[in-house]
Structures are given as structure tokens and as C-alpha cells.
Amino acid sequence: AQSVAQPEDQVNVAEGNPLTVKCTYSVSGNPYLFWYVQYPNRGLQFLLKYITGDNLVKGSYGFEAEFNKSQTSFHLKKPSALVSDSALYFCAVRVLSGNTGKLIFGQGTTLQVKP
Amino acid sequence: EPEVTQTPSHQVTQMGQEVILRCVPISNHLYFYWYRQILGQKVEFLVSFYNNEISEKSEIFDDQFSVERPDGSNFTLKIRSTKLEDSAMYFCASRSRDRGHVNTQYFGPGTRLTVL
Fold it and tell me: CB-based burial of residue A64 (10 Å sphere; 0-12 exposed, 13-18 middle, 19+ buried)?
């Protein structure tokens, strides 16, 4: 079965410092991986995805993610955090079987950026 | 920029009542989804819909749930007889067909359903 794990419920960083939000996955075959962000009382906003190619993927708002096949990880990173980055972040994997393309989500990580 | 919209933003209902949650997917998208998020928990897949039929449903999606695309723009989720445990945020999502490229699902802002 395919699954995603986000080992940290919350990540705290100071504004201006680099941030990492961790994600590991378990899939059969090549993974299609996504990061979404959820601001309070808002929907899920797409940040970036890894399908194939370069292991470092760049996305919206200065975020990037590094795909590591040997460690089955897809950590979200940003070189310099902003207070406005504070939100709930979800890692997801797209199910490869069938044609539905449903997403399986991790449990989410709350990012708190302090001034 | 096109976006997925959902109405209402918040629905309060009594246990046992029927509710219909509405979604307008992005206009050229062909695959439609409903997910739910119980407060404090992860986002869970409910159902996918393509070519006017359900393509996959989760074990959560029992006989009390149904989906419909009544016209060319709306996509609805109906819960026939709501239970307390149906209280959650319900997200609609849509994507276009993959053509040699894995396309992204775009999510609506959600409908918060509260069952009393």
C-alpha cells in the first residue's frame, strides 16, 4: 500500500532562518509527489510536485523540495523563512494504480515562523 | 487564474438531515474528486469521478453518499442522512487529463459541515 509520513507535527523556525518540513513515502514504482499548503480557514494550495527529472524541484513562494530516492524522502525547504509562511503543510503521493489519480496525504506539519 | 469554487462555505445541519455540497471545478478539467478532513486529522480521499461515473471510492463513501454532475459545470456531493461523525471540512478538487504529464489536482476552499 502506498503511504506518506510527515514525522513532525510542528516545526518552529525564526524568521530569516532556513526551514525544512520532512516527508517520507512508501510506493511501489516511481512516485509522484506533491506539497500543498493550507492557511487557516482556506483550502489546499498547490506548492510544487516531483514527477521525474531533477531531484530539486522549485515551486511557489520560494519553496523547493528535494527528492531522494534512496531515502524515500521529499523534504520541503526554503532558504529564508517568512512569518507569512506559517501554515499547515501537507505532503501527498499520487496513487499510480488505475486511472483515478487520487492523492494520499500525510498527516500534515504545522510550520510556525516567529519574528 | 481559474479556480475551484465551493458552496456553501459553512453548512450546519441536524443529524439525519440530507445535505448537498456544491463545487464548480475548473472548466476544462475532466477528473473530479471529493476529500474530507476531520478536524485535526489528515485529508482523506472519498471519491473520484470521471466520464460521468464514479471511478473509485473509499470505504468511507458508503450508501449514504452520492455524487453527481448535473450539468456541465457543477459537481455535487450528497449525504442522505447525516451523522455526527460526518462533521468535517469537505474539499472538492479537479484536474485535467494527463497527456504525457502528471497533472496537478487543484482544490477548492472547502465546505465546513457541522452536524448537530
Answer: middle
H-type helices in A34-106, by residue range? Answer: none
**Which pLDDT tens digit goes with each residue over B69-93?**
988 789 999 999 999 999 999 999 9
> In one letter, which amino acid is A58?
K
Helices (H), chain B: none
What residues in A contact B6, CB-CB < 8 Å?
A: 43
- On whether any CB of chain A is under 8 Å from the CB of B107, the answer is yes
Residues in chain B closer than 8 A to A46 (CB atoms): 104-107
Residues in chain B, how many? 116
Integer angstrom CA distances of residue A68 from A53, A65, A106: 12, 10, 17
Residue at grid coordinates 516545526: A11
* Residue A55, CA distances (Å) to A15, A51, A58, A69, B97 in order: 26, 9, 10, 9, 24
C-alpha grid cell, residue A93: 503521493
Query: Would you say A8 and A112 are in contact if contact means Cβ atoms under 8 Å apart?
Result: no
pLDDT at position B103 is 84
Distances (CA, A) of A96 to A2, A101, B54: 9, 7, 17
- Return the closest-CA partner of residue B103 out of B55, B44, B33, B15: B33
The Cα B36–Cα B24 span in angstroms is 17
Record the cell numbers describing residue A38, joined without a space: 493550507
For residue B24, the cross-strand partners are B5
